[in-house]
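Problem 12. The chain below contains 96 residues. Write out its predicted structure in token notation.
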Amino acid sequence: MLVLITYDVNTESTDGKSRLRRVAKLCEDYGQRVQNSVFECLLDPAQLLLVKEKLLKIIDEKEDSLRIYHLGGKYERKIENFGAKQSYDPQKPLIL
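Solution.
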């Protein structure tokens, strides 16, 4: 299933800057960055639980926010892309 992970980490402190880097790195391990704090991740239910658990251990719930949007298996019809950044198909191989 495709999920959209978004976050806003308070970076006013050194700890906040560290949390931001750790959250971004974790999301990069599981998905594709589509905007600064927005990742599209193609995950199975077990992976989603694992990612969510890891993210909740990183963020400070008093200062940061985390949102996970479940787009499901038929996500193609739910996404419209406009503007400069090209879209990608998360089910096709990425060539680096």
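Discussion. The helical segments are 14-30, 45-58. Students who got a different answer should revisit the alignment rule from Section 12.3.
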